[in-house]
Amino acid sequence: MEQIIGIDLAKRVFQVHIVSAQGEKKANKMITREKLTTFIVQQPPSRIVMEACGSANYWSRQFRQYGHEVKQISPQYVAPFRMGSKNDKNDAVAIVEADSRPGMRYVPEKSIEQQDIQCLHRVRQRLMKNKTALINQIRGLGLEYDIAIPEGAHKIMAHLPDHLEDAENELTTLSRELLHEMLQELQDNQQRIKILDLRFALISQQNEDTLRLESIPGIGPLGASALTVALGDSADFQNGRHFASYLGLVPKEHSSGGKVRLLGITKRGDGYLRGLLIHGARSVVYRVINLPEERCGGLQRWLKGIITRSGVNKAVVALANKNARIAWALINQKTEYIVK
């Protein structure tokens, strides 16, 4: 590559920093969105580096069409190289500076198909947050009228109509109308989540890798599709541990003077996918706790040993880490999960 181009992405205005292959500064200027593509087309074969943020995957696909090599860097790895105040010009310089470091870790680029599935996950994630907020608000407002409703969407939909029809409680006409509208909103939200879950199930049946991942204990259609998006063809990760580290499922280290000190997990990477793996692993661990020894296989005995030594929570994280490694191996080697 003849030069390196660092681009600080934005909605309308982009800051472009260009250096030669030897590191000599050639330009640092601002370009509007309308002129960016034309500018990149006119450049010789270059290495283009951007932060992994909104629209980065779109621009990566566009720039590759013109023969450029494109890389995305996590913002947390760019920030240490920023000198001076935070502004677009210094951000673009920091992106190029970070890329020049040997061993820099890059974020895998997502295809359009992967982005489609990720969009479904983001919409479902928002609906789940809205549902939780709506449930809490209904229960909180109900307590102001001496109406105590148990936790859970299904319990609210089962108990709230009875309270709305009860003419002897303290609910006024206005409060009944308001709670009735909130109940309808909750029902609509639940219906939208069910529709999205059906879409995930359909995607799982059409994708060979997703079906392969669903065979892992603790991974269902939701987790399998999210893993498919994150892994791609698995070529961006050296091994299973690299992928587990990418998801923040490995211990944080704080060592000094030859004394090794391991802390809790790093929690880096995609918190949503990490949460799916943790929740799936937790369901497996809870079933194993009371499982008779004669019905235990290799995985169950391994989990029981960790539970005995370190407790349930560490066993959950250990299984989530193990599942991430297994997922990488299944996608990388195109093999099936074998229960032992």
UniProtKB/TrEMBL annotation:
Domain Transposase IS116/IS110/IS902 C-terminal: 212-287
Keyword list, A-Z: Coiled coil
Gene Ontology BP, a term: DNA transposition
Domain of life per record: Bacteria
Gene Ontology molecular function: DNA binding; transposase activity
Chain coiled-coil ranges: 164-199
The keyword Transmembrane helix belongs to this UniProt entry's keyword annotation: no
Domain Transposase IS110-like N-terminal: 5-141
Entries under NCBIfam families matching the protein: transpos_IS110
Record-given protein name: IS110 family transposase
Species, as recorded: Superficieibacter electus
